[in-house]
Amino acid sequence: MAEMNGPYLTAAVAPIPFRAKHVPGDFIVEEIPRFLPCGAGDHVYVQIEKTGLTTRHAVRLLAEALRVPAERIGVAGQKDAHAVTRQFISILGVSPTAVERLNVPHIRILGVARHRAKLRLGDLAANRFQLRLRDIPDERLPDLDTALTVLDRRGVPNYFGPQRFGMRGDTWKVGAALLRGNFDEAVALIVGRPLGADPEPVREARALADAGRYGDAARAWPAAYADCRALCRHLAASGGEARRAVLRMDRRLLGFYVSAFQAWIFNQVIAARMPDVDKVLAGDIAVSHATGAMQVIHDPAGFASAAAACSISATGPLVGAGMAFAEGDPGALERKAVASHDVTVTDLPCTGPCKCVGARRAVRFRPDRLEWETGADVHGAYVELRFTLPRGCYATALLREVGKSGLRQDLSNEWTREDRD
Asked: Between the CA of residue 98 and those of 64, 86, 371, what are the distances in Å?
């Protein structure tokens, strides 16, 4: 993925070098549930601790160990592989005892209880983070304090993190192709077009797919690329018919591609609004952080104190059917971002496997209970950060402001270039 070139809220502070995720315990994330299981029902709620696995990979391993379809497993949030994460899943049609007896590498069972409904994405209140940053020069600690104080006071630009855009940074392109109905392009992006940066087995599998040898490509994909293997099998079975093969893929994966396209446009809008991400402008659709209520801002001066206190923030578009654009200059900026991708919002599907339902998202977040202190362990000195973020917000967006890197996305589109630092 290309490094993101968008502007920073803490641009006045020079980049602070640090090393993150040196050992798994340097990055710990714990989900704070929106509700607790009631103790009865057909679904088993499980709190797991996983290390070095994506949530999708963990779900596959648990499904295989329990001999149930992966579709029976629900999750509240998708978590990165490069961390220790404690999160909740639900499993339909198994006994609590069978779950408690599981012995799956890199997954630890922390708690089990029954509930009546399946967990859905978003069924969590927040995420609590504990991060250890290493190799920060002592003379830069005052600068770190300055940067974190700014973020605590003004909030953090609410960029979607690099994990939303995949290893090659192109999941948003897949989403765009799906929404345009260009299934051949979607197939080429998902399983074809090898790059020099790809691992050798992946390059081989992609080259075979490009050559139309889908059966051979399915066998060549490494085990961790189950979705790519499955698509190649579907292509082989359909005689290379891209639309039929793509629509046989897991609907959750298709939804992920579409949401990546929405995230890409949202990130572009934030970049164009910087460094005034903590202000509300005439025409903005602002959100109350306490209640979630939204309103159009006609008199920005009347809301300046609420914005300064992080009580309200402007929102940006998650483009889709039914989404309302902002008005005035903010709305013109949003429409320009969408138009640059040859997408018409009114034509986006609101049903089906590639549905694109619109929403609004705050352009910044304020870390709750942000704390930091120095310490040392067997691996050396560190600065430990502790904070809680609303669901859907990324700790990498905060770390990006410290190191001035780490969000790997290219925002160098012509239409935003004049608005960037």
From this structure: 13, 20, 40
